[in-house]
Design a protein that fits this description.
Number of helices: 22
Helix content: 10-25%
Radius of gyration: 67 Å
Structural class: mainly alpha
Distance between the termini: 227 Å
Largest sheet: 2 strands, antiparallel
Strand content: under 5%
Strand order of the largest sheet: 1-2
Shape: rod-shaped
Length: 515
Amino acid sequence: MLTTVYLSANSRAASIESLISPGEVVKGHVKVEHECSKCHDRFDRKRQSALCLDCHKEIKKDIDNRSGYHGKKPQIRQQECKSCHTEHKGRNADIIKLDKLTFDHAFTDFPLHGQHTKTGCNDCHKPGKKYSEAPQACYRCHADASPHKKETMGKVYFKCESCHNENHWREIRYDHDKTNFPLVGAHKKTDCTSCHVSERYVKTPETCFACHQLDDVHQGSNGTNCKKCHNAYDWKKLKFDHDKDTDFPLRGRHIKVTCDACHKEDPYKVKIKSDCYSCHQHEDKHAGRFGKKCQDCHSEQAWNRIRFDHDRETKFKLQGKHTKVECTSCHKQNIYTEKLKMDCVSCHKLDDVHKGQQGNKCDSCHSPFGWRQKVRFDHDITKFPLIGLHAVVPCEECHLSSSYKDASIECDSCHKPDDTHHGKLGLNCDRCHTPNGWKIWRFDHNTQSQFKLDGKHKGVHCYSCHSEAVKVIESTPRTCINCHRVDDVHNGQFGSRCDRCHDTTSFKDIQMNRF
């Protein structure tokens, strides 16, 4: 019995296309062998490559990303798939047509360098696997030959290329600068195992102290942050700049002082005082009398070099002998609380040989250059100006003691031994004599006394009349009879007024009733 079978339009088309198929497809395409539209477009042959890539999405991805063999080789990207890969040649046909001898591995994601150029294809491309499925990570091939362990290597274990290269496995080219611990200075020459003990590369200490604790000459007193002072180029060359990094610049003797001389404990935890007294208190020979501001007088260059300028910084300039006087001679107590008087007598009261007679202004006569030198006392402002020979007489001739006011200003007090008159002419020597010379005298009897010398009286010696002290004579009447009583031939009959008849020219010349 004849049976009629009705096929759909698609089935009829597929059957017709199957009848005109040029041959069997490869095993990989068997599933679509009867679905010609999966690979062919009836009306547009140029779409065939696009249909290939619809199935081979990994190839399309390579082309789009310019990766892999299909994406890196320009001529492949520009030509149709069928120009290299043909179909309908049978189940076992080779449609890849790979020529291992001419294949350029440089157009892949894994260019061959070094020892890889000598390696056989099958060493990396295993049977039954696509060529693109060959592992590219070193550890995938070399894990069995690796001397490292995952637990000691960490993430680096999977990145062999970060240390090794294809030329030779033992040629290490690891760039340590890309880590958190760049190698500089002496670290560049340090063997890896010095820090990475037992091939341990994870959790390797990155602080100086962790490795150099045994080299710490400070024994931890300066803390554990070594790099604040030291550097990797030379351990003994300190990069710490005390002048810039602290408030205490090192100058003079401080430059040579060892760090632990001041820093007894960790300097980053225990802050020491920067004033001089905090360190040099035990060296203070002033016993605190001069306060704690040592820098006002001393400097870092040398402790014995005093830079305090007493002339400029105080109201009392040091001159003469004062420049050599010890500070403690005047400053007995704390100089910042003790207020010293600046007058001479405050310090030299015990040295005052005048016993206060000259007052407190010692500097009116004396100078700081020497108590007995350059005495500038002006005697002319006293009651006894020095004139004539007195100007050259040493002070001690008149002032027998330093109590100068005890000296008398009377001539007789000094010249009594020189008084040839023995007091007959009184004590007012200056009436006759002058300081210019003892023998130069200037007494004028006519003007300086009440008894004018005329006539014979001019040649009479002084002692003829002045036989007694002047004061006695001054108290007696100045009549002729007082001196000439023995010469009175009248025996007093004509009274005591001889000058009524006689004159001083000659006693024998008589003129009656002269007055």
